[in-house]
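User: quick one
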Amino acid sequence: MKLTRNKPNKRIISRTKEVIDVNVVIRFGMIGIIVSTMLLASLPSASATLYGDANEDTRINMQDVTKVERMILEYDPETTSADTNQDDDINMQDVTYIELIILERKPFPGGSLNAVMIFGPKDNTLDPAYKWTGWYMRKAGIYETLFKYNAEMELTPELATGYTQVSDTVWDIHLREGVTFHDGTPFNADAVVYSIGRVTDESNSRSSEYDHIASVVAQDDYTVRITTTDPYAPTIASLTDPLVSMVSPDASDLATDPVGTGPFMYDSNEFGASLSVVRNPDYWGGGVKLEDATLTYVRDSTTRATMLESGDVDMARGLPYPQVSTIEGDPDLDVVGKETMRVYFMFVNTEKAPLDDVRVRQAINYAIDRDEVVDVALEGVGGVSAKGVFPSIFPWANDELAGYPHNQATALALLEDAGITDIDGDGTLEYDGADFTLNIKTYTSRAAMQPSVEVIQSQLEDIGIVVTTDFTGSGPVKEAMTAGTYDLAFYSYGVAPSGDPDYYLTAHFDSTAGYKENGWTRYSNATVDSLLASAREEMDLDKRKDYYDQAQAIIVEESPEMFIFHEKELVGYDNKVIGYEIYPNEITFLTKNMYIGR
Amino acid sequence: MKQHDMCNSRVIGAVAIVKESRSAILGLAIVVLLVILAIFAPWLSPNDPTEVCLGDRLISPFTESKYPLGTDHLGRCVLSRLLYGARVSLAVGIAIVGISTVIGVALGVVSGYYGGIFDSAIMRLVDATLSLPSIFLAVVIAGMLGRGLASIMIALVAIEWTSYARVARGSVLSLMEKEFVESARSLGARDSYIMARHILPNIIAPVIVVATIGMAYVILAAAALSFLGFGAQPPTPEWGAMLNAGRVYMRTEPYLTILPGFAIMLLVLAFNLLGDGLRDILDPRRVVVE
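Assistant: Done. Structure below.
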């Protein structure tokens, strides 16, 4: 009885168990699929092998040939990376294969690079002639320009081979022969005329920066003649801006399908998220080592650092300063830093009393301890304190400038001269019968802005100035500067996008040029105006440098802008990434020399 | 059998009351404690919360007696900033909930009492507001108004009043059927008299419950908006803003995010406990069980 009764029960139990089991299997199966997909996704970067690097020194050279030969002779143990042709056998074919890689007859097995950047193309266009999109496209290695600045900030030919200055206003540019665009179109004088024409065309929002160009004419297949309206010394330098990228005249739609000459060809793109490129097998500059690369765009610096630390990416630009030491402490990661062409400074409203008094401006300069700003706001790693507008790495910087070393006594003496003293002995300076109060405005989209202003605020309060701050977007700051309703505005500019000093100095300090930046400071000095005008037309480099040196000295002395520090670019990378170099002008990122070496 | 069940539920009900009021008492205790800390912040704070001391930056908690909870990236005392931050959070919370309650209850009572087009218009506006994710809407409004505590207060009031209007209207509709309202009407009492004397006192309980839980939400939302940079402007000590400033130091100095985060959690939890407890105590259905 008992047995027969129990049997059906057992069956029921086992049946319910089965049901549960099926559920469990489905659930775990799902989890398994998700986990394995994630694992698979992470595999390529985790197990990348540099086939051909037999001795595993991250380089492929003749030593590897010797190494493979020793393995064949069984002097040395075999390694995975020695099996260069990946046929599971180490033999003389691998030796030949390595030699072919060295001779660039076989593609370099450089792997895939994932890098996280800060800003990427926006406004649904990839057209390099649209605003600053060319910069992002150049960072991705798609486009090139006639001339460029190398990692030492020297002007060097890229798609040009050189130039001849025919007269003060006529320049002949000689083009590189044998270059083809990614679509097979030959690069020649017509392509140059077409590419520059897209920038100088009035419909281009940045065409006014190129209104010095009167005409661009093809002299022959590989010579282009540029005529300027006036003698304009920075003509060649102006061709280094990625805005003037060389584009294929046969491309159907550059906004969606970029066609350039660079080491990498466009693959895919998602606006605001990522851009993928693949190796250009026919690159004129030689073999491209990376097979492909993906640039991801993430605005938040902490997220970028975490992506690097977790291995999601191999490289990360713009690391948060407090995390630099953590990342350096990781045995797999390294941080490389280099002074860049970006300056952080304060616009000064030179028409508003008492800032119209040069002594007051100088006093504020002396009261600011720039080294402390760098130590506190940038954790000592994110910048170099500034003496003038240009960083010392820039050949046009006036190296004689002493700047404003921190000196509270000098600051107080200058303020006293200007009639600003602590009359009632309350520890606060008085101006015109009330507490001397300054307002500093800034925007917060760059991480260094707010902490820098907070430090400057406390330094000025140390000598008895009352400081208020406004942290907003850049829009309200610009409005206040245009309206003249501001005292000081902390800001950041790239000082020489085209590598020429004229861009910044003219826009900010030439009162006859009519740029908005000069309108913000309301600064006017006839000597500076004429020095800048002479420099713009002077073709002799030494004389030109002399004009700019004089202008820089006056600008620092009169201080319509207070220069605080020059930013250091901090790039973190997994040390399996080989061949990366920082370019101070923030323009070049991916190059043919980079690869995954392990 | 029935007897047994009823007895059981009564026992469970009694236990629940004790339990619920326990959590309510705990919530109340924490709220009272934080209010006292906020009121006496100037006397309790060891340092000036906005005083920058660059020589003493990033000191860890419990290492120096001058700074019991350490210092932030500008050398400001974290404990002092937390105490003053409680003032900001509580003041903002009370102000937003107070204004929202007045606006919401007034509109809710009037629309529930009179009905008609006015009622439809108000309720469609409430539905429209509630159909959007509230924090998203708050970000949009605060973004349009610019930065500052005032703008996030306006933004949150613009959203918060809807829940009070809805609760008030619902309660009014159920009260309208009640005999005392009908009798007052038949005796010829004015609408304003009925609303003030008969309806308002009877909808206070549900409104108080909504307001208490609303405090928790509003404090959290205000901190979130400040975290995003809309609310309190530096150097004002505000928990959300402190959280944001400490974010870049999360890996190296985690206390800069843990402490303000914990403070926000504590205050929000306290109001939630209190609100839940009040809801159970004031629940008319439970009174029936008893």
